[in-house]
Amino acid sequence: MIELPSTKIDEKAIKAWRITSVLKGLPLFIIPGFLYFVYVMGDMPAIVPIITAPITLIIYVLIVSLFPKVRWSRWSYDVTEQGVDMHRGIIIRKRTMVPMNRIQHVDTKQGPIYRKFGLSSISISTAATTHEIPALDDETAAHLRSLISELVRKVQEDV
């Protein structure tokens, strides 16, 4: 069996992803709010909003507290002279190997939440698509961007 990538992303990703989940999960509460509105208008039995509110709250708590930790534990990558190997996924596990000779350019990206935690993500572009390694500390991201660019130049010179 082929070894899985062993380098983990930064553990601060858990906190950053929790904040992102708090913000992205808020629209979930539109559903029980709407159902309560329909109940107040008299078109629905009270049991429907009473049941949907706690279910929504449980889903929200799981999305905010559990999923970021599991997502972090399932993310690993390695950069070698052959390419960038990424392994990730909570339910559907995905493994991607991007060969060095296919990489066209490498970018770093940092939004406001990542900036607060000193994190950046790396985007690796090929002719077909873009792959991302999320939540690396800024220094690691800058180093990896330089390393990948150097390895790509080396592969192109060998051709």
What is the N-to-C order of secondary-structure elements (H for helix, E for strand)? EHHHEEEEHEEH
Spatial extent as radius of gyration: 21 Å
* Separation of the first and last Cα atoms: 30 Å
- Give the % helix: 40-55%
Beta-strand share of residues: 15-25%
Average pLDDT, to the nearest integer? 92
Tell me the overall shape.
Answer: elongated
How many strands? 7
**Distinct helical segment count:** 5
Low-pLDDT residue intervals, each spanning 5 or more residues: none
Largest sheet: 4 strands, antiparallel
**Quaternary state of the chains:** single chain
Summing up helix and strand content along with how strands pair, one would put the structural category as: alpha+beta
Biggest sheet, strands in spatial order? Answer: 1-2-3-4
Could you give a short description of this structure?
This protein is α+β, with helices and mostly antiparallel strands and 159 residues long. It has 5 helices and 7 strands; from the N terminus they run βαααββββαββα.
Q: Could you characterize what this model shows?
A:
It is a single chain. The protein is α+β, with helices and mostly antiparallel strands and 159 residues long. Helix content is 49%, strand content 24%. The chain has helices at residues 13-25, 30-40, 47-73, 112-117, 138-158, and strands at residues 7-8, 76-79, 83-88, 94-99, 105-109, 119-125, 130-137. The strands form 2 sheets. Strands 1-2-3-4 form a 4-stranded antiparallel sheet. The protein has a 3-stranded antiparallel sheet with strand order 5-6-7. A hairpin with a 5-residue loop joins strand 3 (83-88) and strand 4 (94-99). The chain is elongated and about 75 Å long. The two termini are 30 Å apart.
